[in-house]
Design brief:
Length: 186
């Protein structure tokens, strides 16, 4: 079972159960030509990793994310929406009472801010432990979004978890009105 999963993940097995062809998820590394910005970003990241003792995958033709030309950055409205969505997911993962989650849904329209996978978790009455764990780790992304919005001065090297209480406090103190006002003012 694991080998068939890995085969399908890496494009080695192109057939699924319905006998239709599924394109590979990734491009073979020998077919990757990185742009200058990708190479520069990779070199900078590798330097940071090396200085912190993080092992590096050495294949020069792999592990590139999209070039800057291909990336569509989210606007401030979308960043605020993701911030609210990730807060909701994190709070649910910690067992916040459903009445409070329902209030957030009503106030912020959470459903429209969640991906399909997030919705599956958010509206499950019996989520799995893995779903709960995955949602809890989304606090780290929430922390980065608060930095992007200007509420956290500096992102430090990620060798420890963010301070969730501080991040939730920022959003709580802003309140709905001020958080939504970001969309208008910025």
């Amino acid at each position: 079972m694991i080998s068939s999963f890995l085969s399908s993940l890496f494009g080695c097995s192109q057939e699924n159960k319905s006998n239709t062809i599924t394109p590979p998820i990734t491009k073979p590394v020998e077919n990757i030509t990185a742009s200058i910005d990708q190479k520069t970003r990779r070199a900078k990241s590798e330097k940071i990793c090396e200085s912190n003792g993080v092992p590096i995958y050495k294949n020069p033709n792999s592990l590139f994310v999209s070039s800057e030309k291909e990336v569509k950055l989210r606007n401030e409205d979308e960043v605020v929406d993701r911030t609210i969505a990730l807060l909701y997911l994190g709070l649910k993962s910690e067992g916040l009472e459903q009445v409070h989650l329902d209030k957030m849904e009503e106030e912020y329209g959470i459903s429209s801010k969640l991906s399909p996978v997030e919705k599956e978790y958010a509206y499950s009455s019996n989520p799995t432990d893995q779903q709960r764990t995955n949602a809890n780790w989304r606090y780290e992304s929430l922390h980065v979004l608060l930095w992007a919005l200007g509420y956290i001065d500096e992102l430090v090297y990620p060798n420890q978890m963010c301070n969730v209480a501080d991040d939730v406090k920022i959003i709580y103190e802003l309140g709905r009105t001020n958080l939504e006002k970001i969309k208008i003012e910025k």
